[in-house]
Amino acid sequence: MAKSNSLTAIALQRFRKNFWGVLSFWFIVFCGLIAMLAYILAPDNSQNANQMHLSIHSKKPGFSVQMLTIPSGTSTDQSLFERLFFGVKNLNTEIPIEDFTFENNILKVTPYTEGELAGISKSIELDNFPQRLDKDEIVQTFIRNQTFFLGTDKYGRDLLSRMLIGIRISFSIGFVAVLISLLLGVSIGAIAGYFGGKMDVFIMWLINVTWSIPTLLLVIAITLALGKGFWQVFIAVGLTMWVEVARVVRGQVLSIKEMQYITAARALGYNHFRIITRHILPNSLAPVIVISAANFAGAILIESGLSFLGIGAQPPMASWGAMIKDHYSYIILGKAYLAVIPGIGIMSLVMAFMLIGNALRDALDVKG
Question: What DSSP line would sit under 151-190, residue for residue?
Fold first, then answer.
């Protein structure tokens, strides 16, 4: 036990000395916090950050406009949990405006228009607002100056809010896919390595057949079989990532099961399940941890590719891959940031997981 603790301490000490590994770790923790608090941090906290304003589409970062909110008069009964994890059901109407005036019992507004063409004014009766508010209170409560720090997309949605909500998709797909791959890969690899014989031959044949199929094509096939959707992508990506885990676990089990303490465990009459779960797997998880970090990055890339092809997360969900798909044509129209910003998000998150995987590999190398 003391030796185990000392090896753990050595591994942690090595990891702390790896600058890029530590930086990547804190970056991932930071992104994870953003994913959990996305609807609190996002300027547009509606479900999927899907408030569209076509009159202000494709605006540059830092664009500001006055926004008039017309209450719907319908209350939405949502718990704090629903607001935090699924966003606010916003039934109010938002209108970007250039100017407004009050005339008797009417609020006249000039909707925002791009260019020199003046917008046609609209008249809104003050009865649409709560009766207890006077004109000054209506202005303070329902008219605000809104800044879009990353600009707006082609539908007039806040790009910053879509980016923040999109982190959830990337983290969710990575976590679920890695979890599925670990459950399948560790179980199948341990069975193949421990029992050997025909069982090992069959599992290796299954692994080789699965590995021979290009990952993206296999994911597309599984997705089409299960149907388009959020959870279907999770399952499809997870079912394609167990192969490498199974091969590594099998190799580790083949070497560990010949150790003297495993022979002693058999001599003491321990059953196969106890030997595998308590004596073999705990000593073979170091390379699995490294592979899991790489698989996490791979899952993010695969989900982005599927969303770009239109068979990943479906609209109006905020997926970084779908955001690139919607705006890649804008690269030649002078608004490349609409596709570059989500691309940088994907690149930075994938790079962080790859760097932390390399740091873990060096830290867990007890022979180094």
Answer: -B-TTS-BHHHHHHHHHHHHHHHHHHHHHHHHHHHHHHHH
